[in-house]
Fold this protein.
Amino acid sequence: MTETTFSATGSTINPGEIIQLVGPREKSFIVQMQPGGEIHTHLGIIYHDEIIGQAWGSSVKSHLGKTFLILQPALDDILRDIKRNTQIMYPKDIGYVIVTMGIGPGKHVLEAGTGSGALTIALAHAVGPTGHITSYEKRTNTKAMAENNLRRLGLLDRVTLKERDIEEGFDETDVYAVFLDVQNPEDYMSHVRTALMPGGFFGALLPTTNQVTRLIYALEANQFSFIEVSEMLHRYYKPIPQRLRPADKMVAHTGFLVFARAIAAPVGGPKELPPTEIAEKTEE
């Protein structure tokens, strides 16, 4: 079987590489090249053998004579195209997560709430072949979809997927960073603390302010510092020189990003959750 990659290995297209075909009205398709393969679109059939060996940025015609541009897909294109059965993280959030948590080649990152694997894919891409991602997901079908997405992109060897509820804790220790995309991350801060290396990075994604408030209390109670709460808003502009203006639609609130660093225990010991917060959690 041809090895899969979405990173170009040369100036021409090789079997196994993933391409982006852009047709009329910028309709695009993400496809892995296989000798003898065919791409069926509403604008006609495109044959893989007519693409393999061509230069990136060239074009190909369907059997109906429609022209498609052949491009190397960006990670953004890959993430938007993956199969999903859950809401994926947006590239605007993923990019900030990677740079804020300092995730790069050789790092070991722990993740919980794999979902369809969008963040997992981006993390695996960032840590490179010398790094590793360990990701926990308690839903069987969801884990299977993430595994298929990673395999399709040739990144599965950089990821260990575990089907387990993180209430049981993590197997790993001394990891560089932990990111949680779960509903109640505040309940797992002691597990996160045990898994992280001293000074390690923590991050989480939450949709509402009351969830963020509970997480901040839990972070303080477990000796985390440098707490940051951010919201990424992404607005496109219509690239028309004569009337440059914002696009009619905007990718606004998708979630709050919370970051912190694991530090040594402060003088006076850990803080406790306020009784009002404990009562609210009990009522929920």
User: Anything to note?
Assistant: The radius of gyration is 22 Å. The chain is about 25% helix and 25% strand. The CA atoms of residues 179 and 232 lie 17 Å apart. The longest strand covers residues 196-206.
